[in-house]
Amino acid sequence: MIPVSEAIEIVRAQTPRLGPEEVELADSLGRVLAEDVIADTDLPPFDRAQMDGYALRSADTSDVPARLLVVGEAAAGRGWHKTLRAGEAVRIMTGAPVPAGADSVQQVEVTSEQDEGRAVEISKATEPGQFIVPRASEIKRGETVLHKGEEVTAARMAVLASFGCSKVLVGARPRVAVLATGTELVPVTETPGRDQIRDSNTFSLGAYAALAGARVERLNLAGDDLELLKREIKEVAGRADALVLSGGVSMGVYDFTKAALRALGAEIFFERVSLRPGKPTVFARLGNALVFGLPGNPVSVSVTFNLFARTALRIMQGATDVLMKEERAVLSRSVRGALERESFLPAQLRTDEAGRLMAEPLKWGGSSDFVAFARATALVNIPQGTKTIEAGETVRVLRLPA
User: Fold this and answer.
1) What CATH number is associated with residue 276?
2) Please, what sign has the CA dihedral across residues 340, 344, 182, 290?
3) What is the CATH number of the domain that holds 38?
4) Which helix (DSSP H) or strand (DSSP E) does residue 336 occupy?
C-alpha cells in the first residue's frame, strides 16, 4: 500500500493537460481560464460620482451656506463635458462622470435648489475628492484582472464582460466515461431481484465528474465477465480522456478490473492505497486514457473519486486549484481512526455561535451506507496511526463538491 499523499502525487505527475478551446462568454460558467485576462481600459474609466448631488469646487464651500449657479447636469451615460468655473455647480447622479474643474461632490441631502433649479444652496462644506471614485482607482489599463487557471464564476463573468471578453479561452473539458461492474447490479429503471441492487455508482460518479467540469458518458452495466469488461475498457479508452470504473478491484474471485487492465497492457501506477474507506483503488493508463478503478461500495466511490479522479480532471483543464478545498474545523464529537490507514470520514460542517467552523461526524454504517453519506458536506481527515480524536480538537476537513 502507498500513502494517500503519494497516490495523489502520482496522479498529478501522470495527468496531462488538454489543449484550450474558445467558448462564448455566456457558455463559460464553470470553465477554467486558459489565459490571463488583461484590462483593456481603466476602471472606472473616468472620475465617477458616488452620490446623487452636485459636482462643485470645494473652495466654493469654504463659507456655508454657499449659493452656486447650476450650469448643467451629468447622469450615468450622459456627462456634462464642459469645464466648471468658480461659483458654479453641476447637478450629478450616482455613476456619472465628474466634470472637469470640479474636485468634489456634495450629496443632495445637504443642499436645496433655488430659483426653480437655476441655483443651489450648499449647507455643508466639502473636501477635495469627496464622494468621487478616481479614474483607474479600481483597475488600470494593462493590469491582469483574472489569471490563467482560475474557474469562471458568476462574479468573474461580470469581469470578463466588463473588459470586452465576448469569447473566452478555456481549458477543454475532459471526456469521461463511467462504468459500474458486478452481476448484482440492475439499471435504475428495474426492480432488483433476489440478491440484486440498483446501480447508483454511475450516477454519483457522473455527477461528481460533471461538477469537476467533465463531459460524461455513462456506459451500460458490465457484469462479472472478464472478456466483456476487456472489450468495454478497450473501446472506451480509444475515445475518452479518462475511464472511471467502480467495483471489481478487490481480491475476490469475480474481481476482474485489474485482470482486464493487465490483459490489455495497461500501465498500472498503483492498486492499493493506505486509505479508509477505499484501500483497493487502482490508477492506470491505457493508451491515452487514464483509468481509475474504484471500490464498489458507494461511500468508497465518492471518497476515492474526489481524492484522485477529480484531481486528474481539474489538472486536465489547467485549473490552479485541483484538490478538494481544505479547512480546519473543531470536532463536535470524538471519532476513531485506523492504525494502519489514513481515514476520511463523512461529516457535516456548520458554524457555531462563536463563529467557529464545526465538524459533526455522521453516524454511518460503513462504506456501503450511502443514505447517511448523502448528508455529508465534508470529509474529516484522520492521520494514519491515530486511534481517537476527541471532541473539541481541531481537525483537517475537505469540503465535498456540491
Assistant:
1) 3.40.980.10
2) negative
3) 3.90.105.10
4) strand 335-336
pLDDT at 36 over 80: yes
| Domain contains 292 | yes
Q: Is 188 found in the same domain as 303?
A: yes
Q: Could you tell me the residue range of the domain that residue 156 belongs to?
A: 26-42+139-171
Supply the DSSP string of 188-212, one letter for each residue.
TTS---TT-EE--HHHHHHHHHHHT
Give tens-digit pLDDT for 227-268.
888 999 999 999 999 999 998 776 654 478 899 999 999 999
Cα torsion angle, 70, 126, 96, 109, sign: negative
For residues 280 and 195, membership in a common domain is answered with yes
CATH number, position 383: 2.40.340.10
What b-and-e string marks burial along 1-27, b requiring 16 or more CB atoms within 10 Å of the CB? beebeebbebbeeebeebebeebeeee
Number of separate domains in the chain: 4
* pTM of the predicted structure, to 2 decimals: 0.89
Question: Is residue 265, in this structure, part of any structural domain at all?
Answer: yes
The answer to whether 179 and 235 are in contact (CB under 8 A) is no
* 8 Å CB contact between 297 and 368: yes
Q: Is the pLDDT score of 155 beyond 70?
A: yes
List of E strands, 202-332: 215-218, 242-246, 267-270, 275-276, 282-286, 289-294, 326-331
Same domain, 125 and 55: yes
pLDDT band at 280; cut points 50, 70, 90: very high
Region 5-11: mean pLDDT is 98
